[in-house]
Structures are given as C-alpha cells and as structure tokens.
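Structure ticket #2291
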Amino acid sequence: MADGCLRRRPLRSLWHVCCLMVLALALVPRSAAAEPWPLRSDPYVTDIAGVLPEDEESRLRAELAALRTETGVAMAVLTLRSRSDYDGSSTLAAFATGVFNAWGIGDGARNDGILVLVATEDRELRITLGAGYDQGYDVLAEDIAARHFLPDLRQGAAARSIMAGSREVMARIARQHAARLLPEAPPARRDGLPAWLPFAVIAAGIAVVAFRRRGRGAKGDPTLPTRRNGGTRKDRDDRVKNRGGGEREADRPEGGHSSGGGGTGRW
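Resolution: structure written out below.
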C-alpha cells in the first residue's frame, strides 16, 4: 500500500509541473510574444495575407524593381491580415509609418520611398510616403486610394486592386516626383467639382493653423525651413527632432524615413 502511494507521488508532481507550465504560457501577453512589425520577406512584395497569385506577385515585383532601376524610387507593397497581429494599439497611419521606418524603405538621403499597406481583415489600406514628398502628394495618395484601390477591394478582388492601385502610385507619385514635377491635380468628379477639393480644403486649413503657430512661436528661429524657402517636410521634421533631443538620424535604421504623410482608404 505504501509502495503504491510512493509510485503515485512522482506522477502527481509531474502533473502539477505540467499544469503550472501551461498556465504560465497562457498568462504571457500576446503583445509580448508577437513581433512589433511584420517581417520583410522581399524588398518589393511581402504578401503575408496571401492574396496575390504567384504570377501576379512576380509581375508586380518586376515592375517595382524596374521602377527602382529607372528612377531610384524604392516602393514596397505589404499585405497582412490584421494590425492586431502586431501592434494593434496604434492608428493605421502610425502603424504604417512605423513599418516604413523599421524597414527603412528607400534612399536615406532623398527619403522618396513609398509603402502600400493592405490589411484584409481590418478592411483598410494606407499609402505611406517618405518625408521627401511635398504635402501635395498626400492629396494625390488619397485620390488614388479612393479611385483605384477601394472599388476592387469592395468587390473582394484584392489582387486586382493591389495591381491597379500600385501602378497608379508608381505612375502618378513615384515617377512624377522622380522627374521633379509638381503633383498633378486629381480629375474632376461627375458633378463638376474636382475630386481633390475636399482634401485641398482640409490641407488649406492645416496650412493656416500651421502658419499661425509658426508666426507665434517660431519667429525667432529662422533655421527651421518652410515650404516657402524651399524646405520639405523632412527638413523641418529632422531639424526639430535633432534640436529637441528626439529621434536622431543616427538612431534610425539605414534607409528612408517617413513623417507620416500619405493617404488612407477603408472599405
């Protein structure tokens, strides 16, 4: 009888240890186990959501590689299921900017890289532009998202949307910027009003607020570049961060940087 009890005790102890291990694993926060950003499997196309057929993915990769060769502009396309698989606590724009900067997309001197991010389960997309793009390209990115990505996404044709939308981004943003041309105005709508008008009104309001703030607090700092004296969004962003002790150039990964510009779409 005593021998039977002694044999059962090691088994009970082993059972208790296994239960404690399972409980400990269950209590590990999901965010601690997950990667903060998607892992980049390819310089041009990272299809984590698996929405691109192999032939179309290869075709898109070849077109993005040709864009890089011909213009120097690096553009990456990322598909994923949900931001909650990574850092789901941030906004879409902040998440896409974080991915852009973590990957270091594009040339670090020009900051003209582009990221197209499509989250299929979240039903949202983001076109994120490098800090070297003028704010006029944000309006164009919003137009491309609305007119060339969203219609096919709403019909469940994710691959067709990504192919068509990415080609518009290459033609109307990447190549326009590489040729040092001003961003083109989006076409007019059927009601006669320009499609870019709502975005232009918002941009104008932001510009007025920024001008007033600059007039109040930055009059004594002529070193901060503005669009009037030829500065870009990157120039001012870097100067303020380096002066204020924030993220410095040396702390960033090699490659391009984004200040959060671009366009968003949801379906």
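Closing remark: The helical segments are 2-27, 30-33, 54-71, 92-103, 136-154, 158-178, 197-217, 233-244.
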